[in-house]
Structure formats: C-alpha cells, structure tokens
Write a structure and sequence with these properties.
By secondary structure, this protein is an alpha/beta fold. It is built from 12 helices and 7 strands. It is globular, with a radius of gyration of 20 Å. The relative contact order is 0.11.
Length: 272
C-alpha cells in the first residue's frame, strides 16, 4: 500500500467474480471513494454486467488482479471459493497486509486460511439482500444488513467497509455461519415459493398482473411479521412445507438461477 493510500484511507479494489454481487459491491465502494483496480469476468454475460456497473474498470486475469489490489472481493460460487483461495496461495499470489473479503454466507474466515497464512487479512461479509446485479441494488444496500465475521483485531475494518457501502454490520460468530446461511435460505426459498403459488392461483382465475395485485399485501404482511419477529407464533415450518407440498409446489421446486435441480436457495449459498 503506498503512502498516499495510507493517508487517505482509500484502497485499490479488485473484484473476482462478475455475478450479481461483485459489481454492485464494487460500485458501492467506488462511490465511497475507493479506486477500482479491475474485475475478473469470463462469460459474455458477466462482461456485460461488469461493463454496465463498472464501465471504467478494466477486465483482468485473476492473478494480475490480486497482485495489483489492496482489497480483493471474492464474489464467486461457494463451491469455487476454497479452490480459488488455495490455488492463489499455492502460486504465492496473496500478499502480506492485503485485505481479502468473501461474500459467501455459509463460510466464515476459515475458508480464507490459506490467504491468511500468506499474510493476508481475512474478512467474511455477506449482504442479506437478493441482488439483481443492477444499479437498483445500490439503493437497496442502504437499507440492508450485512453479516460480518472477522478476527477481532480487524473486525472494525469489515464493519467500516459495510458502513461505507451504506449497510448495517451485524457480527456473526465463525461457528454460527452455517446457521446463518440456513436462516437466509429458509426465508428466501419460502418467500419465492409462496409468492409463486399465490400469483399462480390469481392468474388462474383471471387476475391480471397478479404480482402487482399482491404487492401491497405481501409487503405489509412481511413488515408486520418482521415487527413481531421473535414473538410466539402458531405457524409451524412443517405446516408451511406440508401446505406447499399439498399444492404441488414445495420449496425444493422453486426456480433457481438456471442450474438444474437448484432449489431456489443457490443465489446466496453460492455467494453470487
């Protein structure tokens, strides 16, 4: 890190993964004054997304990106994260003092151990938001909570980055990350399934634009439920599952992001 960066607190930011999350977080941090070093993007779709969200950011190969960046965001599918971190460690790419932040909900900082052993600073930050991969997400970040896991001495760094993106950090212990991911998975899968079931019924009886019809109802119902969160309730998760199954549409059938057999929870379990 050069002297100018140290004085200003601004970081050179590299983003690995141009799915729905990486470019948005990059744009949010760029808005806070950090400099985008570049982004990695392989498919035509990811290149288009990177160009739309970060038009001035060069598309670089991963090793080059890591070597040039002071903060590296790993916004890749969960299944790719351990191999990516370990592979870059094996080639000596990680640098001492470099910040490495991943966005996978089910992992804490343990998955970043190979980078930490090379002297990098590990951070696990997951925004509790369903991303579209567009500029709409930037406004939504301002009302979102982020799960943050990091070693105690560097926890303030992770929290500060979240605040710079407009979010609210909530510390999640390393051993609780799996439970956290399950909570997010449950909320998302059920929400998608119930909305699709309800709009399908309305469409079947001739209601036009069933999504718009239910919009106010669903938002108010969810807001009320969140207000009462933690209070005793007669609703049992098993009852919801059985009701969905009886309707012929359980959470396991909820649509995902295009992967065959995706249960609708993959977008956040993959950290995309």
């Amino acid at each position: 890190m050069n002297d100018t960066t140290r004085r200003s607190g601004r970081l050179g930011l590299g983003i690995i993964g141009a799915g729905r999350v990486g470019p948005v977080l990059g744009a949010a941090l760029a808005g806070a004054g950090h400099a985008i070093v570049g982004i990695s993007a392989v498919s035509a779709e990811s290149r288009e997304r990177a160009q739309a969200m970060l038009p001035q950011a060069p598309i670089l190969e991963v090793p080059t990106l890591v070597e040039r960046s002071e903060l590296v965001i790993l916004a890749v599918p969960d299944r790719e994260l351990p191999g990516l971190v370990g592979g870059l460690a094996a080639t000596g790419t990680w640098q001492p003092g470099q910040l490495v932040l991943h966005t996978a909900p089910g992992y804490g900082v343990g998955v970043l151990r190979p980078a930490a052993e090379s002297g990098a600073i590990p951070l696990a930050v997951h925004p509790a938001l369903e991303f579209t991969g567009t500029s709409l997400d930037l406004a939504r970040l301002a009302e979102s909570w982020f799960a943050v896991t990091a070693p105690a001495p560097v926890l303030p760094i992770a929290q500060a980055l979240v605040v710079e993106m407009g979010g609210e950090p909530v510390v999640i212990a390393e051993e609780d990350r799996a439970a956290y991911a399950e909570a997010i998975a449950t909320a998302t899968a059920f929400s998608r399934s119930i909305v699709e079931q309800s709009t399908g019924i309305l469409a079947g009886i001739g209601v036009e634009n069933p999504g718009s019809f239910l919009s106010s109802l669903l938002r108010s119902a969810v807001d009320n439920a969140l207000t009462r969160a933690g209070a005793p309730t007669a609703l049992d998760v098993g009852d919801v599952l059985r009701a969905l199954a009886d309707a012929g549409r359980g959470p396991a059938e909820a649509p995902g992001d295009g992967d065959p057999g995706d249960d609708g929870r993959g977008w956040f379990l993959r950290g995309e």
